[in-house]
User: What shape does this take?
Amino acid sequence: MFEKTTVDENYVRIPRDKLFNFVVEVFKRLDVPGIKVGAVNVHPEIKVVKESPVFAVIDGDEALGQVAGYKGMSMAIEKAKSVGVGIVGVRNSNHYGIAGYYAYMAAKEELVGISMTTSRPLVAHTGAMEKFMGTSPISVAAPVDGDHPFLLDMATSVVPSGKVEVYRRKNKPVPGEWAISTETGEVIYDPNDILSPKGTILPLGGLGEITGGHKGYGLSAVVDILAGILNGATWSRHVGGTSDKHSDVGHFFMAIDPGAFGDKEEFKRNMKKFIDELRNAKKHPKFNRIWVHGEKGFLTYEARMKLGVPIYKKVLEEMNTIAEELGVEKLP
Assistant: This one.
């Protein structure tokens, strides 16, 4: 599909690689609408605005977020290998997909990776009842000796918007207190209302300070500072969606070489000990097992590579609509 949208052939492989390596529950509309209306630059001139041996700032020229993001983390990895740490900020980009993909890029190179991005307003911060902040994802990955990397990939909201979208596609109410009405402030469960101007997702921790909602709000603000304001990108309520012209999404990437702090192999061995200790802690009777961040995703990926990828009927219909528009063969 990307090949049919006039995206530069040098960049097509990057989102395709992401789709292959991180199989997700919901296929969004692949940024095609943004490309069609000119909101996404298919022939970007991505420029390094400022650089030192340790850091860089990149202007994404409104490229696909996957393209600008891949460039950003690749530079951070190169710098970490050279001087021990690399920090790269990206501005003037678009939605970059899965935060964990970029952190995982670093972990595959035996580095610690950190990735975060600004995103369009979908979340009410503590005390508010309007879509103001983004779901502002954060991901941290670290290599582990003889095991999958540790891979935290989390929204700073109660749930990512994609999870609400899953329930919308299933025509089912969301199962928890994930969102409130922008009119009354009361908890709502209809995913259609949540994703419309009628509703707004809550920050991680939920409604109010008793359950820690102010902490999710604070984490989201940190993402806006590091991935947005620091890079000269926009933040929270000013961030556009994929189909909006000049969405000015900002990203933050960091790669750290454990070898700069000590013995890299010892770090990986200690990570393995840490992971095993987490798994083998005294288990709560209501849980079948104790999971480590990233473990479910890697196991799901392995299963999907063997058994195939389940796609919801509505998602299939949307993808085939795009395929028809672009003259691409439909999925069966």
Summary: The chain is about 35% helix and 15% strand.
